[in-house]
Write a structure and sequence with these properties.
The complex is a heterodimer. Chain A is mainly alpha-helical. Chain A has 12 helices and 2 strands, in the order H-H-H-E-E-H-H-H-H-H-H-H-H-H. Classes of the chains: A mainly alpha, B mainly alpha.
Chain lengths: 233, 201
């Protein structure tokens, strides 16, 4: 009985505190700070303040909510690609492709259309310098096969060596993306559904160059290549 | 409320004394220890969320975070820390799998007039305000996947409490994006989202 009462008291303190902070938090920084200090003194968890809306910091948090707190990628309902270390030209090109509907994606279309050109550049420059370890989680059995396809291609199936454009270390260049450390499920999804996502509409889109290659790979070859590149640092 | 509190307290004491090696059966003591608070048929009851239809990996990960005291809001601390303390991993897994198979019923306790606004936020987020799409992680019908929870049909009051508590710094599991998500949501957005979700079948 005593335990039950103290919990009720605790919970109502909590509700009161929550309401005060919500009502004043964004408008009055000073009272919020005082409250936050009071909270930490009285043993409550501390209010976490969001960075100011409209700035680069807030937008980066927004990106990292889905793409991983270090840009390493994340598995939500959909796989979210690694952005860390990505080529800025590629990232800018893709954000423009979402805006111009050349790349179809139900989430990223909305995300990209509010970004100003200068914000796009700032985001791309930020992510290029991040270098967390690969997300991991790919099956390991086919990595050797993947490495062979990546480095030598499949001449009999008209698949060029991936390394010819993406580089032997998978770092990419200019508009050609970095693949090193990419989330396995994301790479598999892209290579399996290339033509339904990339190069939509009639406008010229450089991603067209990957369409025949993606088409010529079997499912197990796609998985092998994706597993290999996901393991690259 | 007082009576419920007492009931929960009794169960918490009960659960902590249950022998860890009790053998598993569909309607076992272990299940009854959960449904006492989480409602008949595990459909949720006041502050205890619905377990029916929840992702088994999510239930297991929450049990772990109660045990490790990472999920630390007042009710979790008071009830769940004790309730899972004596739960062995096999029983935890069996419970998670059992509850996952029960057909979930929507709580329907949100504000109907806010549901369509809530659905827009759920699907698209509010990119201008750096509010992310919930859909990207929780799925088109809020069904969840792996250890990402099903949100569809959970009660308005439970969901609202969780979102507010993240904003206040509670239960921040390392690596979880939810504290960040919650700090960007204003009170109106929380009302709309949680109302919408309470009606999702």
């Amino acid at each position: 009985m005593v335990a039950a009462r103290s919990v009720e008291a605790d919970a109502s303190d909590d509700r009161r505190g929550g309401r005060i902070v919500r009502a004043t938090g964004l408008r009055l920084a000073l009272p919020t700070l005082v409250l936050a200090m009071a909270f930490s003194v009285s043993g409550h968890a501390q209010e976490r303040m969001a960075p100011a809306r409209g700035g680069l910091e807030a937008k980066l948090e927004y990106c990292k909510t889905c793409h991983g707190l270090s840009g390493q990628g994340y598995l939500g309902y959909f796989p979210m690609p690694r952005l860390a270390g990505q080529q800025p030209e590629y990232m800018e090109a893709q954000l423009r492709a979402f805006i111009e509907r050349r790349r179809s994606n139900p989430v990223m279309r909305n995300v990209a259309h509010v970004l100003s050109p200068s914000m796009i550049t700032a985001l791309a420059m930020h992510f290029r310098h991040l270098n967390p370890p690969p997300f991991g989680g790919a099956p390991r059995g086919s990595i050797a096969t993947g490495k062979r396809i990546y480095e030598e291609g499949l001449p009999e199936a008209n698949v060029p060596a991936c390394s010819a454009c993406h580089g032997t270390e998978g770092k990419g260049q200019n508009e050609i993306p970095r693949l090193a450390g990419q989330v396995y499920q994301y790479t598999v999804g892209q290579l399996s559904g290339w033509k339904s996502e990339r190069g939509q509409g009639t406008a010229v889109d450089t991603s067209a160059i990957m369409a025949p290659t993606a088409h010529n790979l079997t499912r197990s070859q796609v998985e092998a290549v994706a597993a290999y590149v996901s393991s690259l640092q | 409320m007082k009576r419920i509190g007492l009931k929960i307290a009794i169960v918490a004491i009960f659960a902590s004394t249950v022998s860890a090696n009790s053998s598993w059966a569909g309607e076992s003591a272990a299940v009854r220890n959960c449904t006492w608070c989480h409602g008949t048929g595990a459909q949720g009851y006041t502050v205890a969320p619905r377990l029916a239809g929840q992702r088994p990996q999510y239930i297991m990960s929450e049990i772990r975070s109660f045990r490790e005291h990472a999920r630390n809001n007042p009710f979790s601390k008071q009830y769940m820390w004790g309730a899972v303390a004596a739960l062995d991993p096999h029983t935890a897994r069996d419970l998670a799998n059992y509850f996952a198979t029960i057909q979930p019923r929507p709580a329907n306790d949100g504000d109907h007039t806010l549901a369509s606004r809530g659905r827009t936020i759920y699907m698209d987020g509010i990119p201008e305000a750096n509010i992310v799409s919930c859909y990207a992680c929780h799925g088109p019908n809020a069904e969840g996947v792996r250890d990402i929870p099903r949100l569809g049909g959970l009660s308005y009051s439970y969901l609202k409490g969780r979102l507010e508590q993240w904003g206040q710094g509670y239960h921040s599991t390392p690596g979880s994006p939810m504290p960040m998500v919650a700090t960007h949501l204003g009170p109106e957005e929380v009302e709309a989202l949680t109302s919408y979700l309470s009606f999702v079948k």
